[in-house]
Amino acid sequence: MTDDSKMVMRAAKCANIIIALGELYGLSFQEATDVFYSSETAGLIEEGVADLQCRSDKYLASLVWEEFQEKRG
Predict the structure, then answer these.
(1) How far is 44 from 55, CA to CA, in rounded Å?
(2) Contact 68/39 with Cβ under 8 angstroms?
(3) Residue ranges of the alpha helices (H) in the chain?
(4) Fewer beta carbons under 10 A from the terminal one: N or C of the chain?
(5) What was the pLDDT predicted at 63?
(6) Which residues contact 65 (CB under 8 A, 6 or more apart)?
(7) Residue 73: pLDDT band by 50, 70, 90 thresholds?
């Protein structure tokens, strides 16, 4: 797998998680994007942590949402 194809796969995964955040928690696309990219999970996905790529988009969206809720306290 080339670096370009890995980048495309990560970008698609991120987009799918953002869409799932919007669907699951009633967020606008912009809100979901902000929540996603402020999470530690987003950083791990960008780094290519392998086991995260295997998780479902909705599961990862729920992890991102939990992080967001914890930060808001």
Answers:
(1) 13
(2) yes
(3) 3-25, 29-37, 40-47, 50-53, 57-72
(4) C
(5) 96
(6) 21, 24, 25, 35
(7) confident
Q: Which two tokens stand for residue 24?
A: 């699951």
- How many residues does the structure list for the chain? 73
Q: For the chain, what are the domain ranges? A: 3-72
Structure tokens at 25: 């928690």
Joined tokens for residue 41? 């999970």
The pTM of the full predicted model, rounded to 2 decimals, is: 0.91
State the DSSP code for 55.
S
Our CA dihedral for 43, 45, 50, 54, rounded to 10 degrees, sits at: 140
What is the model's pLDDT at position 49? 80
20 and 14 Cβ atoms separated by less than 8 Å: no
Residue 67 tokens, joined:
């992080």
